[in-house]
Amino acid sequence: RSNAEKFEFQAEVSRLMDILINSLYSNKDIFLRELISNASDALDKIRFLSLTDKDTLGEGDNAKLEIQIKLDKEKKILSIRDRGIGMTKEDLIKNLGTIAKSGTSAFVEKLQTSGDLNLIGQFGVGFYSVYLVADYVEVISKHNDDKQYVWESKADGAFAISEDTWNEPIGRGTEIRLHLKEEAGEYAEEFKLKELVKRYSEFINFPIHIWASKEVDVEVPADEDQDEDSTESSSKEENEDEEDADKGEDEEEKPKTKTVKETTYEWELLNDVKAIWLRSPKEVTEEEYTKFYNSLAKDFSGEKPLSWSHFTAEGDVEFKAVLYVPPKAPQDLYESYYNSNKSNLKLYVRRVFISDEFDELLPKYLSFLIGLVDSDTLPLNVSREMLQQHSSLRTIKKKLIRKALDMIRKLAEEDPDESTDKEKKEESSPEVDEKRGQYTKFWNEFGKSIKLGIIEDATNRNRLSKLLRFETTKSEGKLVSLDQYISRMKAGQKDFFYITGASKEQLENSPFLERLKKKNYEVIFFTDPVDEYLMQYLMDYEDKKFQNVSKEGLKLGKDSNDKELKESFKDLTKWWKDSLSNDNVDDVKISNRLDNTPCVVVTSKFGWSANMERIMQAQTL
Ligand code: ADP
Ligand code: MG
């Protein structure tokens, strides 16, 4: 084309496309749900804009917020179009090729190790999955602010953009034309496309239509000089005509008709746009919740969410919400913890999608949750910025946190492995067994989030502390809660004992534990770097304090003969303190914490523990 401008794909994008176009991966179906998901995003965007500016939608067909799928069987072209926001020339250049998303290289890496494409949508590169089934793709797009353009590429490292002077004007939105590969013939079959839409795009909030062929009976005038023809027509017609048979004989001059089969096309609706969150939780099946999770999270790995909570909040601020605990933490959950405010909650106002970039809905430490909030109280026709200031958001947030923590607590309560009751622990039935071990799974994936919550959220600190798990000198490889620890405390024990370090193995032989072990006290192992910070915030729980056994002043219940010991060793401790200069130690004291080891160096009560020194050193290196 004479007016085409050529561009090169950014290197990582090009690599990804190379892998995709040559992929022997068998599940190529995913491209369709990625395209539909993009179409749905584009529709959400234009609908949102139209809230404040009615004219953006235009009129007639343009105002219909829908998705259309069409097939050209002969040419093997599959097109998916939407009447969404569309892309300007700039958008096409940036979004489809020159600016790589941060997830691109992470996804390429993942592909090379696992070969699993199912999570492509989560990495923000879903569009390129078109090259699983097509070797040539055209994107025709019209944005309100620009002319109609065509983007095209054969995945050969480059793409071209031209002003569209040859296709019909599409009004507004985007049409993706896939020129299917030889071996992707199955996607040129209507029934296959219908099945895929039904399977994967059930929860898309806009109608999806397919240009479907239909065999219909049509009445055509019978050929006049072949009167007998009427008897050859389909049996169906004969039956229908039976009643009229007598009449027909009388009125011979009436023109005779016959029925023939004809193929016609019409738009067939494939989904029924169900807002699952508006229904009563009792009416929604487990399978529906799972599928809704898949579509919200763009997680089609086949793993079920660990848990969910679907509820309605009433009162001053009304909203409905569905929250999910995903089966796995995303790879970068904690890497990007402090510098991103990525939210996984979609905000709707009266069924209209507003944003998925609101960090006011949940605190950072709960950003691993996936879900949706639909509020009736928030105003519809204001900008996102204004909405961000709305006072109802604080109430929504408070309730969401409460519900989220309840849901996590239930995960533990329903897990038979978590029970202290022997009978409950050993109970077995399909339902109970399904829940066995689920809290440990949760803890392994998201335990750090709970700890960060204790550090950051003073209001819910106690609730979060209940969710804490750790290993101890007596846990035998299992996880213990604070409540369990309390239930096993020795008579007269007032505090929790803990020790921090790099690993359990290293701590197990620590001289600090000798005496406590001998006296049968349980000691908590805190081995995660975040634990040092955690212990600065976790002051007490159920009126019990936390004592670091490697710090000065450890008290194990009653110390009866302390005074006498101090007196009798006075000379020794004095000699010792004088021998070691004051720069080296603060004090030398008699203590009852040891058993076999003659002496230990401990940290002062208010100083950093040895482990904290280690962590700080690692950070400054
Ligand atoms: P993601 O959807 O996660 O952003 P994709 O690779 O699926 O990643 O799409 C890349 C970008 O291309 C989108 O963010 C969007 O800006 C643009 N895009 C894709 N399809 C459409 C469409 N149908 N309408 C408008 N923009 C689109
Ligand atoms: Mg996408």
UniProtKB/TrEMBL annotation:
Residues 219-231, 238-252 have a biased composition (Acidic residues). Keywords: ATP-binding, Calcium, Chaperone, Endoplasmic reticulum, Glycoprotein, Nucleotide-binding, Signal, Stress response. GO terms for molecular function: ATP binding; ATP hydrolysis activity; ATP-dependent protein folding chaperone; unfolded protein binding. Residues 27-184 form the Histidine kinase/HSP90-like ATPase domain. It is found in: Endoplasmic reticulum lumen. Belongs to the heat shock protein 90 family. This is Endoplasmin homolog. It comes from Pisum sativum (Garden pea). The chain holds residues 75 to 695 of 817 of the full protein.
